[in-house]
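User: Can you predict the 3D structure for this chain?
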Amino acid sequence: MREICNVGYARGRCSHFPAGAEADAVRFSAVRDGKDLRVIYILEKDCSPLRHGLIIYSEGKFTGDLLKGTLLEQVKAFVG
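Assistant: Here is the predicted structure, written as structure tokens:
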């Protein structure tokens, strides 16, 4: 089995993991609400929840809190 760094908890194991990252991992869950897609995210550190929030994808746009940088790119990939 090989180690890979794209499933979370890669701090100290993956050269691509950002040194100043607030969280170790992010988890997503999604549900369709009419024409909108509601995505709940949970940031984790040391195997515990650190922060959570809601992102809404509607009419080709994302809205919600903390929507910048890496989290925005990760939610885009999740929604795919």
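The beta strands are 25-33, 36-45, 48-58, 61-64. DSSP finds one helix and four strands in the chain.
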